[in-house]
Amino acid sequence: MTVAKQEFLDNPLGTKTTLEDVVDAFEFLDDWEDRYAYIIDLGKQLPAFPDSERVEANYVHGCQSQVWLISHHDDADDKLYLLIDSDAMIVRGLAAIILVALNGKSPRDLLTTDIDELFEKLDLFRHISPTRGNGLRAMVGKIRDLAASAIE
Hints:
Blueprint: H1 5-9, H2 19-28, H3 32-43, E1 67-74, E2 79-86, H4 89-102, H5 107-112, H6 115-122, H7 130-151
Helix pairs in contact: 3-4, 4-7
């Protein structure tokens, strides 16, 4: 992998921007137009994704937009760090929500995190298209596969 560990550690999603921050923002914002703007702003926090990693092996199938995902498992602290990118602004924001919930967790913790509960709490699936919902599930599925591989 050509991506340095530090690039994964510099990701603010899941560290500086926490799940509590996202939930609080969703509770504070009354309408979905404001929530969509917030989701897009979250996507702007995604770190730069290396062009060299935009390859088939890192492509997330099942998304309407183009999405790439890479990970780094730090054996010393048993944490899985993630980088995601997409060509669509709203998908970048949805990916950011996933990172806030899953980035920097141990593979075992990641596998036991009920991400659907978060999506339900944020009421995402009622307010995004079915194809975007499928894309969310595809991203989470690929992350779970990476976590399972890190445990083996």
